[in-house]
Design goal:
The chain is mostly helical. It folds into two domains: 1-92, Rna Polymerase Sigma Factor, Chain: A; 96-195, Winged helix-like DNA-binding domain superfamily/Winged helix DNA-binding domain (Arc Repressor Mutant, subunit A, Orthogonal Bundle), CATH 1.10.10.10. 79% of the residues lie in helices and 0% in strands. The chain is built from nine helices and no strands. The longest helix is centred in the middle third of the chain and has 31 residues, at 62-92. The protein is globular and about 55 Å long. The N and C termini lie far apart (46 Å).
Length: 195
């Protein structure tokens, strides 16, 4: 098996595996990031894969492992860019409150979306994350969980309905709590000296 050979130090086997999964990683980033960042993120993900190869424990397919590394790379990229844009916007917007307000509104929308996903049961949350963010097919999820792909699709349908309901019922109180959490995260970030 290529994976075992790679783990034992066979770089050629590693190269074959990386070549096999690189198109899926490239497609993942092209659908989510524009410009030259896309290819940079592909390279970063594949580099992370080579460093993390011994961390694969076969609880899921190797493809799922590769795509989870890509997903985490994307999240790190978005966090870095988001922080840079928001904090640069705050610095540059002393005379332009509309820019700072826009940044806060974006953070609020992001926080509400996360709150919606977190409102799902752990099983449904995992399905949503794996299906939509890691591009794992319903068939593959079903195979991993030992249930039919149709059951996975039904659960995804139920999850989407729950997300719509949560979002539509978001009260001003819910929005206030989400905003307070986001503000506290910003304060913690600023206090950490990372800015």
């Amino acid at each position: 098996m290529l994976l075992e050979r790679w783990r034992e130090g066979d770089r050629q086997a590693g190269g074959v595996l990386v070549s096999r999964y690189a198109p899926a990683v490239r497609s993942y980033f092209r659908s989510r990031v524009s410009g030259p960042d896309s290819e940079d993120l592909v390279q970063e993900s594949l580099s992370r894969l080579t460093r993390a190869i011994h961390g694969f424990q076969a609880r899921s397919s190797f493809r799922t492992y590769v795509m989870s590394i890509a997903h985490n790379t994307l999240n790190d990229h978005l966090r870095r860019g988001y922080r840079r844009i928001c904090f640069e916007s705050f610095d540059d917007s002393a005379g332009e409150p509309a820019i700072a307000e826009q940044c806060l509104l974006e953070r609020e929308r992001h926080a509400l979306a996360l709150a919606c996903v977190r409102s799902l049961s752990p099983d449904h949350r995992e399905l949503v994350e794996r299906f939509y963010w890691q591009d794992t097919s319903a068939r593959e999820l079903g195979r991993e969980k030992g249930i039919p792909a149709g059951t996975i699709r039904r659960r995804l349908f139920e999850s989407r309905a729950s997300l719509k309901k949560f979002y539509s019922e978001a009260t001003p109180e819910t929005l206030r709590r989400v905003a307070e959490l986001e503000i506290e995260q910003i304060r913690s970030f600023v206090r950490s000296g990372a800015v």
